[in-house]
Amino acid sequence: GSADFDLYRPSEEHDMLREAVRALSEAKIAPFAAAVDEEARFPQEALDALVAADLHAVHVPEEYGGAGADALATVIVIEEVARVCASSSLIPAVNKLGSLPVVLSGGEDLKKKYLGPLAKGDAMFSYCLSEPDAGSDAGGMKTKAVRDGDGYVLNGVKRWITNAGVSEYYTVMAVTDPDRRTKGISAFVVEKGDEGVSFGAPEKKLGIKGSPTREVYLDNVRVPADRLIGDEGTGFATAMKTLDHTRITIAAQALGIAQGALDYATGYVQERKQFGKPIGDFQGVQFMLADMAMKLEAARQLTYSAAARSQRVSDGGGKEHLTFFGAAAKCFASDVAMEITTDAVQLLGGYGYTRDYPVERMMRDAKITQIYEGTNQIQRIVMARNLP
Ligand code: CAA
């Protein structure tokens, strides 16, 4: 309702943060973006630059050694990195996705143990919910965690795991009580070095080629009981609460990709001459750019207002219709990013279709934002069930 409507207002600190991340991204991440895509290799330069500037996991609370950035600041970091390299933006985004279950539901000891190394840049986090036969129907997962003495034994296969193999820590959702469906799912922290953890071959993808996506195999992985995040049976709710906050980071990624494409196309149409003048002098081209900028701004407003809600929820406020707004921001911003990047390719014509220009990469990278952290069809189910 209208009583819940409260405008976000980026502070001067947010504006300064944006300037700093933009400068760092252009100097240290953009120069490698094309090669990272072409060679489908992990953007180590980006990780090093983000860690050196303490921008790799800004959401970690101060009490655990982090920067304690608010949700809007986290969005700004992801947005600005994605503007030059979507693959690299998955470093701060998935560090938040993987670790948020611990932040939201973990006990004090678990937080100290796992958030400290993340904040320092010594470890990254991944999030393991999906399985080969449980994607949209996340509650249909098969991975099991069986209580055994002073620990649990995990068995199963997780699929589509972003940054798998690179991350040191994994939040794994697994069935502890098969009779209770979503209420019988629990969340655990699994370490890369735990005996029985291994990884599949990197997926060959359309976009975000610099961010490895692999299966995670759990073969009789024994973890101590204190790796359980929250209580038994609360893992699915924790996983969903996490997505309420982190779908906003995917919206941020979509905004950044779209802004990168719009900026590139805007520069291009002023240089490219046909019929004796820059093509930007033609009204048909101007109208396309106007529509692109309009849609992008609408997506940004929705995303920032969702981020403000996410922050108020984290600060102990009410529910803020966060489930709706997180889904809406992700769904809308990703659809807009697909439209804008496609139009950017169109504005560059034949050149836009080649790898000599960055907009085709941006178009390929944009596509995943309509799919991961829940397809946009699932977002519509979530919105319909949680209308504000
Ligand atoms: N907050 C808190 N609890 C929640 C919740 C939320 N937003 N949503 C659900 N729950 C809890 C509730 O306890 C609920 O029970 P009640 O209704 O009794 O309260 C319980 O979970 C079950 O919820 P549903 O009945 O809604 O469950 P469902 O089986 O119908 O599924 C769904 C709901 C929305 C379709 C869900 O399965 C879903 O979100 N699917 C998409 C999964 C997804 O987003 N995967 C992305 C993987 S991450 C990724 O892409 C990784 C990457 O590396 C980038």
Provide structural commentary.
The protein has helices spanning 12-39, 44-52, 71-84, 86-105, 108-120, 235-271, 283-314, 322-352, 359-369, 376-385, and strands spanning 125-128, 144-148, 151-162, 169-175, 185-191, 197-199, 213-224, 228-229, 273-274, 277-278. It is an alpha+beta fold. Strands 1-4-5-8 form a four-stranded mixed beta sheet. A four-stranded antiparallel beta sheet has the order 2-3-7-6, with no helix packed on it. Strands 9-10 form a two-stranded antiparallel ribbon. The longest helix has 37 residues, at 235-271. The model is unreliable at 1-5 (pLDDT under 50). Bound molecules: acetoacetyl-coenzyme A. Acetoacetyl-coenzyme A binds at residues 94, 127, 129-130, 136-139, 161-162, 182, 236-237, 240-241, 243-244, 323, 372-374, 378, 381-382.
Which key phrases capture this entry?
single chain; alpha+beta; 4-stranded mixed beta sheet; 4-stranded antiparallel beta sheet; globular; disordered N terminus; binds acetoacetyl-coenzyme A
